[in-house]
Amino acid sequence: xxxxxxxxxxxxxxxxxxxxxxxxxxxxxxxxxxxxxxxxxxxxxxxxxxxxxxxxxxxxxxxxxxxxxxxxxxxxxxxxxxxxxxxxxxxxxxxxxxxxxxxxxxxxxxxxxxxxxxxxxxxxxxxxxxxxxxxxxxxxxxxxxxxxxxxxxxxxxxxxxxxxxxxxxxxxxxxxxxxxxxxxxxxxxxxxxxxxxxxxxxxxxxxxxxxxxxxxxxxxxxxxxxxxxxxxxxxxxxxxxxxxxxxxxxxxxxxxxxxxxxxxxxxxxxxxxxxxxxxxxxxxxxxxxxxxxxxxxxxxxxxxxxxxxxxxxxxxxxxxxxxxxxxx
Length: 328
Prior knowledge:
The chain is mainly α. It has two domains: about 35-100; about 105-325, MetI-like fold, CATH 1.10.3720.10. It is built from 15 helices and no strands. The protein has helices at about 10-15, 35-80, 105-115, 115-145, 150-160, 170-180, 190, 200-210, 215-220, 225-240, 240-255, 260-265, 275-285, 290-310, 315-325.
C-alpha cells in the first residue's frame, strides 16, 4: 500500500484540544489555557519598552547631533575659509556673505605648488606603504599564529615592544641608513622603507589568524600543500575583514606624514602634498595676497581623499572594528 493512502494517525493531543460534544460554544478545550491575559500583559510590556526606546532615542539623537557638530565644524570652517576673498578669523567668518566667496585660492596655491603632482606623490608614497604593510603583515601574522618555531613568543614580545618606541627616536639612525648607506635620498623607496612593516597590522592579522580552526591548516599540510599555498588559498580569503582594517588604519599615517619625507626629499618633484604645503607656508605664503585662504585650500585638497575613503568604506570600517574588538 502506498504511504499516501494510509489513514492519518490519531493524536491524543488533538482529542484533548477538540471541544467535547454538548459543550457550550466558545468554551475552552480540555487541556488548553486561556492566552488573553498573557497577550494583554505582553502588549503592555511591549508598549512600555517602545516608549522607553523612544525617549532614549531622543536623548541619543541630541547627543549624537551635538557630537557631529563639534566634529564637523572644523572641516566646515576650513572649507568656508578656503573660499573667502578676504579672510575673517572671527566667529562671523563661519557665515560669510556671498560677495566674499571665491575659488581663486585654489588656483593660486595650485600655481605655486602643483596640487595634482603633490596628490600623485602622496598616493605613491601611501600606496607603497599600504602594499608592504599588508604583505609583510600577512606573512608575519600567519607565522606567529599558525606556525610553530623556537622563539615565537620572544618575537611576538619584541613586536609589542616596538610599539612603545617613538618613531622620532629612530630618525637619525634611519636617515643615516637610508640616505648615506643605501643612497635612497630623493626616491619613493627611501620614503617608503621605514614604514614597510607596521607592528599594529601584524598584531591585527595574528589575532584574526588565531581564530581560524587549526584543522583546516593541518588537513592542508597532510595533503602536501606548502605554507605559502595554505596562506594564499585558505587563510587570506578568510581574513579579508582584517585586510580592510589594516588598509584603513594604515592609510591616514603616511598620507599625513610630513617629517620623514621632508628629511629625505629635497627635490620638489617627488615631495608629497603635506611637505609641499609646509614649504608653501614657509617660503611663499608671506608674499601671497591671501595666504590664509590659500593654505586652507591646500588643507582641503589634502583632507579630501582621506574623508572620501572613510565615507566610502564607513560600513566596512565599523564592522571590522567591531569584529576585531572581540578577537583573541
